[in-house]
Design brief:
Layout (H helix, E strand, L loop, with lengths): L10 E3 L6 E6 L8 E5 L18 E4 L7 E5 L6 E5 L1 E7 L9 E5 L5 E4 L14 E3 L10 E7 L1
Parallel strand pairs: 2-4
Antiparallel strand pairs: 1-7, 2-6, 3-4, 3-5, 5-6, 7-11, 8-9, 8-10, 10-11
Length: 149
């Protein structure tokens, strides 16, 4: 598990309506993890009835290509709940300024860093959202991040 917040998922707001989805865990996933989806190509057709939760297998994202933030984790084969938009508390692994786009970074101090940070390979520059409150780098420093996954 990559601890982007040692308290797990800390959601401050969801835009007034719950913006959560469900997916099937293909490994043990904890709340507060960022995830990316894996599924069979062509599993979804042109109608909503062709979509099933099992079409979206979720795995932990270490590479910065996250498209979900887990608010309720589960063991492999069970359902997780994740969000794609909302305001959350995340650890800052690099100094972030208000309004700046950020991305995730794993490692000794997992957290968020400015988009294009030298601590993340250029090929992984994928924004997860924007900083709402300025945050300093460090293991116990956090910022409010407005997710846009």
């Amino acid at each position: 598990m990559v601890a982007f917040n040692t308290m797990g998922a800390v959601v401050l707001g969801d835009g007034g309506v719950p913006r959560t989805w469900t997916a099937k865990a293909i490994e043990t996933i904890s709340e507060g993890d960022f995830i990316v989806f894996s599924g069979a190509a062509g599993a979804v057709g042109s109608t909503a009835s062709s979509f099933a939760t099992s079409d979206m297998g979720a795995t932990i994202s270490y590479a910065g290509n996250a498209n979900g933030y887990v608010v309720q984790g589960a063991t492999s084969g069970n359902l997780i709940t994740y969000m794609r938009k909302g305001d959350v508390l995340l650890r800052t692994a690099g100094t972030v300024v208000a309004g700046a786009k950020v991305q995730t970074v794993s490692g000794t101090v997992p957290g968020v860093v400015p988009l294009g940070s030298a601590t993340v390979p250029a090929a992984i520059n994928n924004a997860i959202g924007k900083t709402v409150i300025v945050g300093a780098s460090g293991t116990s420093n956090y910022s409010v991040i407005s997710l846009d996954l």
